Amino acid sequence: MFVEARLGRMRPIRNSAKAIIIEDGRLLAIKLTDEEGYWYCLPGGGQEPGEPLEDALRRECREEISSEIEIDGLRFVRDYIGKNHEFAHKDSDEHNIDLIFMCRLVEGAQPQPGSLPDKAQIGIEWLELDRLDSYRLYPLGLRTLIARHEDPAVPVYLGDMN
């Protein structure tokens, strides 16, 4: 009751599993479009009730990139509290927790747009790791950290980040 009164009405917290897939110095990303142009995000999405997190990630990758993946391990955890960020006008009542895993495509996989893409998804694209800052890749704060994903000094918990 106290938290609700302090924060106002918010939707339930949503867990999401995301995949960092890197091959040949490139990051696999979902390509989307909005009124500002192209933007990108990591493959993955919401966990369904009763669904183990790794199963959710595998399902989302099949839906969005038509590929099976192997999950290597959890790399980043981030909160997204909508009211604190640039999209507050659209999603001020959202609170998401993204669990971001290092993943690999199974041998022979050829990613392509999936059968159940996100609403604004128009394709997939391989983004050059050394140019991630030049893309509108969300969460924006993760761009430099993805390129440094092997550095043990990079934190796992990222806090409230857009």
Task: Pick out its properties.
Nucleoside Triphosphate Pyrophosphohydrolase; 9-stranded mixed beta sheet; alpha/beta; 162 residues; 17% helix; 9 strands
What does this structure look like?
The chain is of the alpha/beta class and 162 residues long. It has a single domain, classed as Nucleoside Triphosphate Pyrophosphohydrolase (Alpha-Beta Complex), CATH 3.90.79. Helix content is 17%, strand content 40%. The chain is built from four helices and nine strands; from the N terminus they run αββββαβαβββαβ. It has helices spanning 2-7, 53-65, 88-91, 143-147; strands at 14-23, 26-34, 37-41, 44-46, 69-81, 95-105, 121-128, 137-138, 157-160. Strands 1, 2, 3, 4, 5, 6, 7, 8 and 9 form a nine-stranded mixed β-sheet that branches. A hairpin with a 2-residue loop joins strand 1 (14-23) and strand 2. The chain is globular and about 45 Å long. Residues 1-7 have low confidence and may be disordered.
Low-confidence stretches: 1-7
Question: How many independent structural domains?
Answer: 1
CATH topology title: Nucleoside Triphosphate Pyrophosphohydrolase
Q: What's the order of the H and E elements?
A: HEEEEHEHEEEHE
CA-CA gap between termini: 27 Å
CATH superfamily: Nucleoside Triphosphate Pyrophosphohydrolase
Mean pLDDT: 89
Share in β-strands: 35-45%
Number of helices: 4
Number of DSSP strand runs: 9
Helix content: 10-25%
Largest sheet, strands/sense/barrel: 9 strands, mixed
Output the CATH class name. Answer: Alpha Beta
Q: Which second-level CATH architecture applies? A: Alpha-Beta Complex
What general outline do the C-alpha atoms trace?
A: globular
Which structural class is indicated by helix and strand composition?
A: alpha/beta
